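$ fold --in a.seq
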Amino acid sequence: MRKFRLYYDKEKEEAWLNEMAAEGFAMTRFRFGFYWFEDCEPGEYIYQIDLFTENKGSMTHREYISLIQDTGAEYVCSWGWWRLFRRKAKLGSFRLYTDASSRLEQYRRIFRLFRNVGIFELAVLCYEVILTVTTWNRSADVGVLCLAADMIILAFGIVIWGNAYHIRQKIKRMEQELL
């Protein structure tokens, strides 16, 4: 079975994957918003998602995957910097980050990712707006197409910056809880 979803919140995505597993569907693959599932025993797996960049504690990707697999978890797939894992529920609870300070650092990494993508998006939007203005003077038809591209880039940027804002708010709440 294949399902399409777009998530920008890892907790919501994890919750949905775990709901699917509870219903007897194990996620096996992900690409461009499409999730592939196969049948499993209801509640057989617990899913966790993590953001991995090569500078994460100077660990290589292979070492990182091996470290997680040592807990009895299975590496399912990657998408960009995101890594998806699952573990048999019969092995007990499965959390990649068990203490508040490590969860806080995870969200700081996620925030930096969204902030950096947002900055790149803003630069692309500025370039695209300049292109639209200069193109419009030469050809209104092409200018309209450029304007449509501007709107798509702007919409994506709003989603990215909105998510960065929500992650930042979550970080502030977590910091207050640690005080």
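$ fold --in b.seq
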Amino acid sequence: MPVSVQDLLIEVLETGEYSRIGSSKKRSIDFKVVSTSATSLDTLVENGQMTQAFRDCICEDVLFFPPLRETVTDIVPMATFFLQHLDKKRRLNKDAKHKLEVYPWPGNVRELVRVIELAVKKFGDDIIRPEHLSIAIESVSENVSDMRLNDETEERDKIIKALESCGYRRETTADILGISRRNLFQKIKQYGIEIPKRRIIG
């Protein structure tokens, strides 16, 4: 939204009053504003894309939603919720749940909804299996090319990238790297890799 438009809306946001084009008569309106942004509002203000006054008007209450790949424990419960909403008889099997958890979800919740909807529409099975999910697991390692550990000088970076891609799921990370879970633990300790406690899963 252009800064010039933001300035015009400030009075409406603050007073709940507006005037129609060509009229000086003030009219009252009762409304609520719900807005979203993929960019930090502070950054937008610093870059001159948002005025401080406008930011203060729309930020009465702020909620932060991390990307789905950073909240791995929410993926299966959310998928199950969407699935039950579409068809209460359908269930996800263990392998399908695992596939959902290791996928990085670049499209976040919208993509998850779409994947579940397609699985229900395209397949009549009561049990949803990995092959019913229209996602490519290869996407997990696109940004960490050749995750097999060969060169010791690159191991630390590869381990960190793999952990991030898998939402810090250590078992899944070990699978992608082609090493045992015990070996992964040793390397994490060896390289002093810090793992957020709230994200340690499995």
